[in-house]
């Protein structure tokens, strides 16, 4: 795979907005797009109702998010793949970007203001730890 543009998604509107920016940058750079959904642990729960059994799994939820976003971002001429990985979002983005020799990581600026700025954010961690360029997309208005 040529050097991709990497973006992380978690099912939020702000992450989706960052993913749209990543798609546009990938198209402009003629690069593939890699959509990543990370999860901290494989928590799962089994719910039984009569003869039916439902399994709620962090892995399955992350796969659904990554695959759904990747599918929505597909456009003519753009190669879009998705990946699900166990780990903290920032660490996962940094390590997968290094592994794939990513050209760019796109993150949203959610939690970069107020108390989130003090506690840290994925964008801040990625910006400080990435071995490639990082683009921080303005996603403040995505949840409105």
From TrEMBL:
Pfam families in alphabetical order: Usp
Signal peptide positions on this chain: none
Domain of life: Bacteria
Domain UspA: 3-136
Gene3D superfamilies with a match to the protein in the record: HUPs (3.40.50.620)
Family membership: Belongs to the universal stress protein A family.
PANTHER family reported for this sequence: STRESS RESPONSE PROTEIN NHAX, UNIVERSAL STRESS PROTEIN UP12
Protein name stated in the entry: Universal stress protein
